[in-house]
Write a structure and sequence with these properties.
Strand content: over 45%
Oligomer: single chain
Order of helices and strands: EHEEEEHEEE
Shape: globular
Helix content: 10-25%
Structural class: alpha+beta
Strand order of the largest sheet: 2-3-4-1-5-8-7-6
């Protein structure tokens, strides 16, 4: 079984990016490190908090950092998780995937190369 490096990213679905940006900037005490019309991200205390407008998710998704995304994805599906979003690249050197646990909770996994 492979290990994780803990939760490193939490993505929050938002309906109004501008309003959400103000709330999260106030909560985290910092301005965004990434700020565009399709994504706003904050780096705070070793975590990345992202705001995603138009997301189909009903709540935040925590992304667990793993050294081998494909191995962890195979382990999770072998343990009963279902793939929600297949592994794919989201930026240079970063791959992500999501699965659902038996109760439908969404779990994110990510790998940086």
């Amino acid at each position: 079984m492979t290990s994780t490096e803990g939760i490193k990213i939490v993505l929050h679905p938002v309906s109004d990016l501008a309003k959400a940006k103000d709330v999260y900037a106030t909560l985290l005490g910092t301005q965004p490190s990434a700020d565009s019309e399709y994504y706003v991200g904050f780096d705070a205390e070793g975590q990345h908090i992202g705001l995603v407008p138009g997301s189909k998710e009903q709540g935040p998704v925590a992304y667990w950092k793993v050294p081998d995304l494909d191995a962890k994805l195979a382990e999770l599906t072998g343990a009963g998780a279902a793939v929600k979003e297949a592994a794919h690249e989201v930026g240079p050197g970063r791959r992500v995937a999501t699965v659902t646990d038996p109760d439908g909770n969404v779990l994110g996994i990510m790998e940086d190369s």
